[in-house]
């Protein structure tokens, strides 16, 4: 069955003078084939566990995995066979193999952005619904191609923008809709990629060796603008509405990064980047709300600096909603649940949110066929916004959307 709600059942009641028989038929679970699910990484720590969340009981079942090599595929299949309690098939190489499996209803794809398009198109061609990690391609052009293919084949999509399902964001959206802070006039975001995270210069972890070029070259579509800022802007527009115009300035202060080992000691290696770590973004939303967002990176954030990692304020005429996190990676609210404040008072939750919880909500909505889960069309819209931000920064002018 889909979750535990009775609305997901088909009910038939037969009545006669001597009989009152009720037959209940539940929808079968959607059988998932997962491309890029290994024994470590984001897919293994967040995406796969979310499919096992109690709210999804009976809604999904993992039946096949696919990785780049036969050995890794077999290892993954063995691991998840234990987790899901039944044998799981192993594929490797061309995504068309797992997509053509008649037992697979939906294909989840969690590979690096440069491979999104080539992996997902055979899945769509096989007329399979799909999950695709954000940013859904290395460029808006690729995202549009994926969206066009999905429309042509009539398949449904879900994109990995799970931050819109966070407990704090859901509550804030509800409070604003109820008028708790009056009419919203403006919103302000302050975020920071801490130097201690070692993702971007001036310090880069040796453990991310295979990701140096991936993260640090614009051509790979995995920049801080497309990934992290894209996630945050999805949350902002989900709560407050879409942009109608945007102006932006960017800056690259750390073009060279020192590579450090697991203990944080320099290895003697350096890496270069063409990706700005500072973005100043302003604009107006359809509702007339003024947006001001400032993202910066590379500064030290240890004890004693007093540096704030993530603050997002939404100002209404009668009060303020504020999200806040001082965790090292707090500027990634799609991964780490922020604290929520209403008019200066912290909002407490009986069950704190987390990324697995948020992803499971998206999966549940997709299974039900309604809700707020992001689709490939949302990915196109966000890609166009990010392009406008980049274009504005390059041309020094406001861009209308």
Automatic annotation (TrEMBL):
InterPro entries: Gal80p-like_C, Gfo/Idh/MocA-like_OxRdtase_N, Gfo/Idh/MocA_oxidrdct_glycsds, NAD(P)-bd_dom_sf. It comes from the Eukaryota. Residues 31-159 form the Gfo/Idh/MocA-like oxidoreductase N-terminal domain. Residues 170-325 form the Gal80p-like C-terminal domain. Keywords: Oxidoreductase. The keyword Oxidoreductase applies. GO terms for molecular function: nucleotide binding; oxidoreductase activity. The keyword Oxidoreductase applies. This is Uncharacterized protein. It comes from Agrocybe pediades.
